[in-house]
Amino acid sequence: METELPQAQDGSVRLLQITDTHLFASAEGRLLAVRTAESLAAVLERVQANDHPFDLILATGDLSQDHSPESYQRFASMMAPLARPIYWLPGNHDDGPLMTEYLHAAGISEAKQLVGEHWQVILLDTQVRGKPHGVLGDHQLAALDQALRQHPERHALIALHHQAVPVGCAWLDQHNLKNADDLFAVLARHPQQKTILFGHVHQEFDEVHRGVRLIASPSTCIQFKPLSDGFALDESGPGWRYLTLYPDGRIASQVWRLPVGQFVPDPNATGY
């Protein structure tokens, strides 16, 4: 089912990506020594304080760490002051049915296909319950194929949680999208420009593979060290990403971060 994609007067689509918030039922909940509600609050304070325009928010998974109803209620209440439509998809730490129930109850849309004048945004579910890796089920691949077939004249931004290509962290790339070839096979059948936006990797990433641009963004809490074979945390601050989708298919993108040292994870952590 299609939902109207908000756009600016010039026809561009201005997005804020928030990802991997890892919230708990308690505001005191910590992930590797970082209070995730506190780091998200600091991110959202900066988002509201700066004047970078955005018309909608994409929340690309792992919104919860303990998959509790209260964590999703917390996410909804913390995001509410931004006063923008929020569209979401589940990550490996999420509980999809609980997300649907509690985010919907908070007035957050379940829409997964947003269609505008020049662009469409498609949100996909790569979650495999109880597993850290991702898979796109047949119904998800079929939904993507149908959406692209419906609007061959519109550029497509495809949002999911897991990485469809290696990001260069061996420990993390084993928890990737296991059937990425199936995804790229669907994309190859359609002529329009396609870009993939994802979370999961807790770091910046922006590369082109098989003619498709793939973009990932920092978490609002802990960061993973890029190009690390074993589990390693990075000192970079929590972050978020703005994207502007222009009518001609160009995408301008910018990552913002909180200052280094404001939220410091446990330096002795060996995993989570």
- The neighbouring-strand order within the major sheet is 1-7-8-9-10-12-11
What letter string, H or E per element, gives the SSE order?
EEEEHEHEHEEHEHHEEEEEEE
The top level CATH class name: Alpha Beta
Radius of gyration over all CA atoms, rounded: 17 Å
Average pLDDT across residues?
96
Quaternary assembly? single chain
CATH level 4 superfamily:
Metallo-dependent phosphatases
Provide the β-strand percentage band. 15-25%
Cα end-to-end separation: 37 Å
Class by SSE composition? alpha/beta
Task: Tell me the major beta sheet.
Answer: 7 strands, mixed
Number of strands: 16
Question: Count the helices. How many?
Answer: 6
**Number of self-contained structural domains:** 1
- Helical coverage, percent range: 10-25%
By CATH, the topology is Purple Acid Phosphatase, chain A, domain 2
Low-confidence stretches: none
CATH architecture assignment name: 4-Layer Sandwich
Which shape, going by the Cα principal axes? globular
What does this molecule look like?
This protein is an alpha/beta fold and 272 residues long. The chain has a single domain (10-255), classed as 4-Layer Sandwich (Purple Acid Phosphatase, chain A, domain 2). 22% of the residues lie in helices and 24% in strands. It contains six helices and 16 strands. The chain has helices at residues 36-49, 69-79, 96-105, 138-150, 170-173, 180-188; strands at residues 2-4, 13-18, 30-31, 34-35, 56-59, 86-88, 113-115, 119-123, 155-159, 194-198, 205-209, 212-216, 223-224, 233-234, 239-245, 251-257. The protein has a seven-stranded mixed beta sheet with strand order 1-7-8-9-10-12-11, covered by helices on one side. Helix 2 packs across helix 3 (96-105) and helix 4 runs parallel beside helix 6. The radius of gyration is 17 Å and the shape is globular. The model has no long low-confidence stretch (mean pLDDT 96). Pfam families: Metallophos. Residues 14-203 form the Calcineurin-like phosphoesterase domain.
